[in-house]
């Protein structure tokens, strides 16, 4: 369980990234955070694995206040909280397999990882996870030989190899075309349901949020302005969150009604 | 599930072929290092064994003989003058050669390839060997050094510049040709404006190189401050040598700084 | 009139600037030419003796002493060994210094500048001056040459490496941080794969330069083929100088070709 208690973040230059957030996210939930760019979605997500550090309040992950973490305890936190990025953030010149196995770094001794000494179980896990996102035949390709959608699938495999309890995804489909976006979201959703991994995704697109989320949190100017199950969300809710009427660019379109 | 024993598990992060290539290359690199470092008596151990010599030497070089400074100026200015003259002449002379070695200007394949070949050969000859040759021809002194530097600089300048010219936008030159311009007009109106800033910048860069080069030409009698170094080393007058070296250092740093600022301003 | 007002003040300052540049340039050139005039004995240069030198020396260059091939190749191999040992040492020593200089890795402006300052200082010295110093320290042998090459190359490689490091994709580092990797693991998994090909490419490029550089270090006693140049030159043995030159041209060209091929395949 992840719990935000009166959480605020003020940047050194005085701007407020987050304002007094109070949210509880339960185990296994698939939460989509929506909002305009600059609304604080990314700061919200990055607080959970402490890529940014909130300045006030408490943030509890599995009952521990993670704001106090540093060094070893911070790495322990990051082992159980995996993250997926907008630009995949793969090492472009390394092989797909090496990128995926780097999800094990938190579990592997420094010397062993430098000498590429991984146990059979780790290698097997990496390969199985590649299979899960249907990209196992590319295991020895260099990451930069892959298309954007394929790279994002590799980064999902990397996160799975980390065996996380929580997956954070920061605009995972913003750089992809509509069909590939749906494919990536479908994988995330499937993993969330099968492995019971709490998943928190930042999205800009309303239609995708509606289709994949269990629960929607709306943010504006660093504040949570909406929080509720997807069934209660209407177009009007989004207009309130965005503070303006809905436009074409807020929709991804594409394969939404395939199923 | 059905055939568990044959289930594929990758055993390595790299494909077997990559692994082989890396292993073979590593063996070659290390093997060649062992051979070359042992024959030249510069294996890692030698560094440790000779460390005391080097620290001893540093002690001998210090403190620099500041009284010697007044002896340095004449040769130092000679060095700078050699570099100025050589860079200026080389810049002017390299213009026609540059055009002849740019594929998009010189469309004659035979001429182009011949010029390339010639320049590649010139660039393989170290500056100091050019100086040896010209000292043999013209006798000891600054003149031989200047000629050596000119030839040396042309090699560098033409190479750098012809690459820039080959990368220019050819559309303006087409437009000028289309409106009836001849070759010289085309070059003047379409090529020169595109490459002039780089050309000046490279000339300044070559000037920096020439300052360093003209420092050493004196070692073989081709003028400049190198002659002084040679003399004082032979007399084992190390404090004087360190004075010269420190002055060279200061001059090189100052000239690089000025030239760097000018180049920044131009580009 | 109203149309001319805006550009006017700018024009004036450009004019003043241009006048200043012109005055400085005229002053530098007057000084240079005056000093060159005073130092160069034109009568001696354009004398019968020079003509005789040309007649005597030039033909000998085109009649290289092939009989000496054995000795010369032996020294040429020593030259390559010196260059290789020195380059490899530099390629390794430059890595930690480059990381110290890279502002995206070491977030301490002071340390970055100290590193850059050291590298800049090293680059200000021509290799052959370093060689003179090391010959004084460890005696006239190839080891002095290796030291000179190693230190000189570290100056350049450190600078180039640090630029490569500053150009890497830091998002990858963030991703590894987010997965709980420690600093050493981030270095080996996130940073090294991004920079290694460029590091290697620059090291090989520097080896090309070092082969040229080490072929002249022998002139000051630091081993390699340069040793033969001094002897041949002192004995006015121009056939041998011609042969040495030929050997340098051939070997340098071959090494450039090989290294160019490897570098194209690396990145």
Automatic annotation (TrEMBL), chain A:
An example molecular function term from Gene Ontology annotations: ATP binding
Positions of the ABC transporter domain: 2-246
Pfam families: ABC_tran (PF00005)
Signal peptide range in chain numbering: none
Top-level taxon: Bacteria
Keywords: ATP-binding, Cell membrane, Membrane, Nucleotide-binding, Phosphonate transport, Translocase, Transport
CDD domains assigned: ABC_PhnC_transporter
PROSITE patterns: ABC_TRANSPORTER_1, ABC_TRANSPORTER_2
UniProt keyword annotation of Metal-binding present: no
UniProt-recorded name of the protein: Phosphonate transport system ATP-binding protein
TrEMBL record, chain B:
Main location: membrane
Topology class, membrane: Multi-pass membrane protein
Localisation: Cell membrane
CDD domains registered for this protein in UniProt: TM_PBP2
Entry's transmembrane regions: 21-49, 80-102, 140-160, 209-229, 235-258
Keywords: Cell membrane, Membrane, Transmembrane, Transmembrane helix, Transport
InterPro entries: MetI-like, MetI-like_sf, PhnE/PtxC
Domain ABC transmembrane type-1 as annotated: residue spans: 76-259
Recorded family membership: Belongs to the binding-protein-dependent transport system permease family.
Listed NCBIfam families: PhnE (TIGR01097)
Protein name as catalogued: Phosphonate transport system permease protein
Species in which this protein is naturally found: Aquibacillus albus
Automatic annotation (TrEMBL), chain C:
Spans traversing the lipid bilayer: 81-102, 114-137, 143-161, 216-235, 241-262
Keyword vocabulary terms for this entry: Membrane, Transmembrane, Transmembrane helix, Transport
Domain ABC transmembrane type-1: 76-259
UniProt topology in membrane: Multi-pass membrane protein
PANTHER family: ABC TRANSPORTER, PERMEASE PROTEIN CC0363, PUTATIVE-RELATED (PTHR30043:SF8), PHOSPHONATES TRANSPORT SYSTEM PERMEASE PROTEIN (PTHR30043)
Family note: Belongs to the binding-protein-dependent transport system permease family.
Name of the featured protein: Phosphonate transport system permease protein
């Amino acid at each position: 369980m992840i719990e935000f208690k009166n959480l605020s973040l003020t940047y050194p230059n005085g701007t407020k990234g987050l304002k007094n957030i109070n949210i509880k996210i339960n185990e296994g939930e698939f939460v989509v955070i929506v909002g305009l760019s600059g609304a604080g979605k990314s700061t919200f997500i990055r607080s959970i694995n402490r890529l940014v550090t909130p300045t006030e309040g408490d943030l509890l992950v599995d009952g521990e206040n993670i704001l106090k973490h540093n060094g070893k305890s911070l790495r322990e936190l990051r082992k159980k909280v995996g993250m997926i990025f907008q630009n995949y953030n793969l090492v472009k010149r390394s092989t797909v397999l090496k990128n995926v196995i780097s999800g094990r770094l938190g579990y592997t001794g420094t010397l062993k990882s430098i000498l590429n000494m991984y146990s059979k179980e780790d290698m097997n896990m990496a390969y199985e996870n590649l299979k899960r996102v249907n990209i196992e035949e590319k295991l020895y390709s260099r990451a930069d030989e892959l298309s954007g959608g394929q790279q994002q699938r590799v980064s999902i495999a990397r996160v799975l190899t980390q065996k996380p309890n929580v997956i954070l995804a920061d605009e995972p489909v913003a750089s992809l075309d509509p069909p590939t976006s749906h494919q990536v979201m479908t994988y995330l959703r499937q993993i969330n349901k099968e492995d019971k991994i709490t998943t928190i995704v930042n999205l800009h697109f309303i239609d995708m949020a509606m289709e994949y989320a269990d629960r929607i949190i709306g943010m504006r100017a660093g504040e949570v302005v909406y929080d509720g199950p997807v069934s209660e969300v209407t177009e009007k809710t989004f207009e309130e969150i965005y503070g303006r009427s809905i436009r074409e660019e807020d929709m991804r379109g594409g394969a939404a009604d395939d199923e | 599930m059905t055939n568990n024993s044959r289930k594929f598990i990758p055993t390595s992060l790299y494909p077997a072929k990559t692994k082989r290539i890396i292993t073979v290359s590593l063996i070659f690199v290390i093997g060649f290092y062992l051979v070359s470092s042992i024959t030249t008596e510069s294996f890692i151990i030698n560094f440790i064994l000779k460390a005391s010599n080097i620290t001893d030497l540093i002690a001998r070089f210090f403190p620099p003989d500041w009284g010697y400074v007044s002896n340095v100026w004449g040769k130092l200015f000679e060095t700078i003058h050699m570099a100025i003259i050589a860079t200026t002449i080389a810049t002017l002379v390299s213009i026609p050669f540059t055009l002849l070695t740019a594929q998009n200007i010189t469309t004659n394949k035979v001429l182009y390839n011949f010029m390339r070949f010639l320049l590649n050969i010139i660039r393989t000859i170290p500056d100091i060997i050019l100086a040896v040759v010209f000292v043999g021809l013209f006798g000891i002194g600054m003149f031989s050094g200047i000629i050596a530097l000119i030839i040396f600089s042309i090699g560098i300048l033409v190479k750098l510049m012809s690459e820039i010219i080959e990368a220019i936008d050819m559309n303006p030159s087409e437009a000028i040709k289309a409106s009836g311009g001849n070759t010289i007009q085309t070059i003047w109106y379409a090529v020169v404006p595109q490459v002039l800033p780089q050309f000046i910048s490279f000339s300044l860069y070559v000037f920096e190189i020439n300052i360093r080069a003209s420092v050493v030409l004196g070692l073989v009698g081709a003028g400049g401050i190198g002659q002084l170094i040679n003399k004082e080393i032979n007399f084992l007058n190390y404090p004087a040598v360190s004075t010269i070296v420190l002055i060279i250092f200061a001059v090189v740093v100052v000239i690089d700084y000025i030239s760097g600022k000018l180049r920044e301003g131009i580009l | 009139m109203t149309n001319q007002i805006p550009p006017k003040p700018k024009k004036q300052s450009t004019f003043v600037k241009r006048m200043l540049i012109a005055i400085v340039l005229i002053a530098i050139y007057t000084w240079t030419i005056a000093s060159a005039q005073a130092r160069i004995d034109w009568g001696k240069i354009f004398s019968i003796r020079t003509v005789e030198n040309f007649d005597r020396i030039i033909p000998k260059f085109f009649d290289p002493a092939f009989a000496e091939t054995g000795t010369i190749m032996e020294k040429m191999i020593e030259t390559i060994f010196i260059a290789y040992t020195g380059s490899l040492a530099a390629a390794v020593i430059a890595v930690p210094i480059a990381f110290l200089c890279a502002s995206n890795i070491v977030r301490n402006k002071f340390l970055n500048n100290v590193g850059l300052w050291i590298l800049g200082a090293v680059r200000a010295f021509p290799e052959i001056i370093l060689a003179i110093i090391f010959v004084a320290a460890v005696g006239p042998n190839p080891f002095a040459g290796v030291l000179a090459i190693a230190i000189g190359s570290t100056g350049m490689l450190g600078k180039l490496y640090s630029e490569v490091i500053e150009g890497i994709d830091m998002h990858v580092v963030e991703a590894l941080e987010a997965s709980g990797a420690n600093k050493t693991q981030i270095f080996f998994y996130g940073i090294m794969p991004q920079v290694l090909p460029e590091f290697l490419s620059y090291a090989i490029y520097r080896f090309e330069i070092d082969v040229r550089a080490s072929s002249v270090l022998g002139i000051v006693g630091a081993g390699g083929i340069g040793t033969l140049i001094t002897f041949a030159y002192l004995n006015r043995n121009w056939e041998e100088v011609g042969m040495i030159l030929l050997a340098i041209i051939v070997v340098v060209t071959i090494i450039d070709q090989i290294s160019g091929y490897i570098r194209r395949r690396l990145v």
